[in-house]
Amino acid sequence: HAHAAACLAEHRWPREGGDVIALTLDGIGMGENGELWGGECLRVNYRECEHLGGLPAVALPGGDLAARQPWRNLLAHCLAFVPEWQNYADTAALRQQSWPLLARAIERGINAPQASSCGRLFDAVACALECAPLTLSYEGEAACRLEALAATCEGVDHPATLPWRDGKLDLATFWQQWLSWQASPAQKAWAFHDALARGLAAMMRDCANARNIHTLAFGGGVLHNRLLTARLTFYLADFTLLFPQQLPAGDGAIALGQAVIAAARLQA
């Protein structure tokens, strides 16, 4: 909610301006009922926040270690969505790790909290394409390298989709289509960005149309990714789009968002 409220405040959205549909994408944050969120579609105004859907929750193997070692996230996604994952060429880097012990920990829920994290999805894809180091120097390094790889491709027709079904984006369909597709790493990196943007856009469009809402807001550190924001803009061109511009998309603007939420609730 704070990410979205900060974006609304930056764009001087009126206090009584009504609802918008917001997309918040980051590594991890606190959601409702103690859930860990990082890829959510919300109905928001300054006072209220309603969760409408988003990415499915996936294990974070090793907790904080998952943010530093991308292969952990690829393993979690493979175990959750790709039963025959060891048969795919793009899991070669993962198969070289000591994954069986970690797989057992994930299956037993040992130090593997569930989170709907877009940031960790980027890490998993970066590991599959071997464009990031085994241990990252900073959070977001894998995503930055993945975006840089995708930027070397001018665009490509691809089979990857991320369908919006029953309140969640279907990562099982995405992974099986994407892993099965034979293409260069740059093409696969671009296809991931495009499929993710198209799936997120379909989710936002469906939620907005159902509520007769015409303005969409965006927040969270993943929105620093210029290719992703460009593809979102392409797929949502008929809406009014509010992206962070003067303020950081990530955690640097959360305090402002929290402040305007508190002020709106006090004045209600």
Quick overview:
This protein is α/β, with parallel strands linked by helices. The chain folds into two domains: 2-55 and 197-267, ATPase, nucleotide binding domain (Nucleotidyltransferase, domain 5); 58-184, 2-Layer Sandwich (Nucleotidyltransferase, domain 5).
What would you note in describing this structure?
The structure is a single chain. The protein has helices at 2-10, 70-81, 92-95, 99-108, 118-128, 141-150, 171-180, 185-210, 226-235, 254-267, and strands at 20-30, 36-44, 49-54, 58-59, 114-117, 164-165, 168-169, 215-219, 240-242. The mean pLDDT is 96. Helix 1 packs across helix 10 and helix 2 (70-81) packs across helix 4 (99-108). The protein is built from ten helices and nine strands. The strands form two sheets. Strands 1, 2, 3, 4, 5, 8 and 9 form a seven-stranded mixed sheet that branches. The protein has a two-stranded antiparallel sheet with strand order 6-7. 43% of the residues lie in helices and 16% in strands. The protein has 268 residues and is of the alpha/beta class. Belongs to the carbamoyltransferase HypF family. InterPro entries: ATPase_NBD (IPR043129), Carbamoyltrans_HypF-like (IPR051060), HypF_C_2 (IPR055128). It catalyses: C-terminal L-cysteinyl-[HypE protein] + carbamoyl phosphate + ATP + H2O = C-terminal S-carboxamide-L-cysteinyl-[HypE protein] + AMP + phosphate + diphosphate + H(+). It comes from Klebsiella michiganensis.
